[in-house]
């Protein structure tokens, strides 16, 4: 079992990554910018299988994310079993029906309207994989002792961003799905008490007739302030 570093003495090791030329840096950055601008959240999946190793590699990429005090407070549950996906969909749709029938409130529903979403979550059974990301709210040892985790929300958010990036660059489509509340995910997957669901991410290829909402991203000028 992986054990946390709490209290271990500082042990520096050399770190000398290759320094790229400015030209190489610019070329890589420009290519990445273009490729990442092509990423879209997909809600209509093909049932076609995807290479499992590509999904495992993407999860491994996510797990290289920085985290508060290097506590790596994440668990990625990879769900392929169709019966389990069916049960997750059933439970998610039950919550989503309550949400869309009034729990969300008009302001939230208005924010969602341009996305065309509703309580039907067919992606949960159509996509060949679901990655359910759990945040470990605290470290829980086998003997039941616990340790506080720091900046868990931020750490898991960064890891999920890296996961989505890795999946996209591997040619796979994904959806960040956050049914609310999400407690049913921990119950169905029988996760330990220190873990709370953070997002469920269907992964696969877009359906042949896939469409996405016509959204515009903020330009660099609109998100950047310089001093
Ligand atoms: C934290 C978070 C939660 C989200 N939850 C949902 C969700 O529950 N259902 C859904 O259909 N999309 C969800 N999305 C996807 C967003 O709607 C989507 O990223 C946004 O509309 C921009 O579209 P794009 O990803 O294609 O650029 C979520 C995204 C994030 C980052």
UniProtKB/TrEMBL annotation:
Residues 38-205 form the Nitroreductase domain. CDD domains: iodotyrosine_dehalogenase. InterPro entries: Nitroreductase (IPR029479), Nitroreductase-like (IPR000415), Nitroreductase/BluB (IPR050627). Pfam families: Nitroreductase (PF00881). The chain crosses the membrane at residues 156-175. Keywords: Flavoprotein, FMN, Membrane, Oxidoreductase, Transmembrane, Transmembrane helix. This is Nitroreductase family protein. It comes from Kribbella deserti.
């Amino acid at each position: 079992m992986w054990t946390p570093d709490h209290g271990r003495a500082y042990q520096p090791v050399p770190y000398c990554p290759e320094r790229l030329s400015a030209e190489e840096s610019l070329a890589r950055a420009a290519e990445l910018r273009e490729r990442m601008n092509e990423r879209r959240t997909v809600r209509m999946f093909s049932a076609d299988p995807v290479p499992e190793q590509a999904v495992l590699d993407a999860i491994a990429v996510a797990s290289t994310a920085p985290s508060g005090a290097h506590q790596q407070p994440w668990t990625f549950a990879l769900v392929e079993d169709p019966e389990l996906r069916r049960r997750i969909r059933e439970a998610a749709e039950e919550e989503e029906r309550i949400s869309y029938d009034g729990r969300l409130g008009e302001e939230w529903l208005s924010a969602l309207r341009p996305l065309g979403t509703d309580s039907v979550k067919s992606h949960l059974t159509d996509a060949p994989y679901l990655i359910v990301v759990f945040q470990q709210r605290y470290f829980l040892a086998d003997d039941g002792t616990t340790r506080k985790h720091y900046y868990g929300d931020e750490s898991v958010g960064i890891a999920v961003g890296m996961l989505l990036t890795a999946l996209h660059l591997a040619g796979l489509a994904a959806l960040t799905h956050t049914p609310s509340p999400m407690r049913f995910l921990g119950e169905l997957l029988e996760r330990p008490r220190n873990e709370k669901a953070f997002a469920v991410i269907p992964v696969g290829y877009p359906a042949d007739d896939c469409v996405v909402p016509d959204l515009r991203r903020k330009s660099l000028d609109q998100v950047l302030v310089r001093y």
